[in-house]
Structure to design on (157 residues):
């Protein structure tokens, strides 16, 4: 019998080697709300631990308005919910005409559970040639509960 030992396949994750865009230097951010203790910068800039959290429950929107059109190849997001059981839905859209029209990238739901699934990592490999606006809408609890929307990290390449 012929056999060969192969190296363990490494799952790609957010890393320092990836050339992530410096969102702070290339975009303006619009948000529907934020908890003062968890500002949007905590999710968009590396090295921050707390992430972003909305000021209250209900649908929230984070919109990145790029100074110049950006080519996006990867959108990496991390959502964390350690305490509440809920079903979250998010929609990621983009525009090439400064928000006059949008195209949906993905619409997805995730079930958080303190007994198991407390983190959702999404790694979207895309080919978007000239993004002027990237919009993330989050419905934190599709059943209408009181959980605030949150985003631990968002990275773009």
């Amino acid at each position: 019998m012929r056999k060969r030992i192969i190296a363990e396949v490494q799952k790609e994750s957010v890393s320092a080697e990836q050339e992530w865009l410096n969102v702070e230097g290339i975009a303006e951010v619009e948000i529907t709300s934020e908890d003062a203790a968890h500002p949007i910068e905590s999710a968009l800039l590396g090295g921050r631990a707390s992430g972003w959290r909305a000021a209250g429950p209900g649908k929230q929107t984070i919109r990145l308005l790029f100074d110049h059109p950006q080519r996006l190849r990867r959108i990496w997001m991390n959502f964390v919910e350690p305490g509440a059981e809920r079903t979250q839905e998010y929609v990621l859209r983009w525009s090439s005409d400064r928000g006059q029209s949008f195209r949906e990238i993905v619409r997805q739901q995730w079930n958080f559970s303190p007994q198991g699934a407390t983190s959702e990592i999404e790694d979207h490999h895309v080919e978007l040639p000239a993004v002027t606006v990237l919009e993330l809408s989050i419905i934190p609890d599709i059943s209408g509960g009181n959980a605030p929307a949150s985003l631990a990290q968002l990275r773009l390449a």
Notes: The CA atoms of residues 88 and 140 lie 5 Å apart.
